[in-house]
């Protein structure tokens, strides 16, 4: 039997160390709290100095309003603060700090010294709990030494000074970004690591603080206002591509927060505009009415609860999406060649036949690429790809008939590109042919257009899927999608209506398990694909469906190295120029243009 131990009150010293451990985790926590105090004090200049990663020394100096002797005597007491007086003040909070725990927590786990003045050079110094006269021209200087020296249980978990210094710098940058009008300096071991003058805009501060290598003209600052909130965002253009979401920063009322949903809003707003599934460099600065947001739910104020979360999410997503749509298309169109005069031709409104095209085109001559005869699929494509009526298919395969991946892909290509309506007018370009098993070349407006056959076919399929995924077909063996967290379940529930409307017969079997009994016939994928699609979902229904449709179109489109017949290649070109945007669903351009002047320049002809 376990030894009996009576309940006892902890000593004041032990209790203060335990409480301090919730606020002060590492040197970067001290930097965060002291910077909050300096910013709240109205400082226009702040200097942060650290030694040995902040473990040995952290010193923060500012030119803020300073403190009196009476303030110094109280400032390290638990729950002493100048920010609020009663609980109701939390509803109107505009300062970064408000709990009155920072300095008391720092003092509990380190050697703390504070020098401050309201009117220099006469000042007061707090050291070892005693206040004495000192000299300081302006503001406050806080010095923290020997962090966790009297708290070995916490100190042994600190990492190397280099790592802790990097964390301190990251905290410094996060505080500097939204407060661009404050001059800030970061010094490590006596070396100036980052000097930030007061900037005139968020864009300037972001470029300087993050040491971004891309040119300034590739970044833009946008803003939007809503009911009870507004935001500014500094966004990199699609030429500024990042491999993950770590370069998406969300700030609310001057604090950086970890809010997965708002990061996803940025991701889905930019999806389709960045090549190869890349992510944007984005800095979002939200200002929310204090009565509509609560930061008092996390010791480091890293989380927040919003009263108008859906409105903020929608506004952020739609505004950023509109920006990228306008920016990406305008950039691409600027590169196109527009001659002063183009001769017109009268074309009959009939489909081109193979005999009308370049008779010398011979895909059989390109031996280095995969060859597939798409004409075999043209005759039967309407029978195999489109059913004449809704069906209930239960075949040997769980999802679709057993067809090789290449055949299925090219069958889809043949159907989508050959069945052009008879009333479609002839094109205003000259078809030149396919080459390298990857590109389609046409002459248009005295310029050479090189079309990426996969990207173009993918976008053509994507536009068709947006209109209809076709009827549902039942699965012989239902898909079982197991989620990893309650948040994943919530995301699927938010998108359930859109999924069912699209033809996915999906229902929640139990907590953490979803059953899919039917899928749309035009959806291309497997159980694993659908699980990945749902796992990569966000809270925006349109974003989820875009993701699912884009991946389906990508899987079904002809691939690099697929030799397609001239009729199909021509029809891909026709439909490419009729698309609303010259971009694939993942953001890659469908074609690039070499104008007459460039061609002449390349062959040294004038």
From TrEMBL:
The keyword DNA repair applies. PROSITE patterns: DNA_MISMATCH_REPAIR_1. Pfam families: DNA_mis_repair, HATPase_c_3, MutL_C. One of its GO terms (cellular component) is mismatch repair complex. Keywords: DNA damage, DNA repair. Residues 431-564 form the MutL C-terminal dimerisation domain. One of its GO terms (molecular function) is mismatched DNA binding. Residues 207-325 form the DNA mismatch repair protein S5 domain. GO terms for biological process: mismatch repair. The keyword tRNA processing does not apply. Belongs to the DNA mismatch repair MutL/HexB family. This protein is involved in the repair of mismatches in DNA. It is required for dam-dependent methyl-directed DNA mismatch repair. May act as a 'molecular matchmaker', a protein that promotes the formation of a stable complex between two or more DNA-binding proteins in an ATP-dependent manner without itself being part of a final effector complex. This is DNA mismatch repair protein MutL.
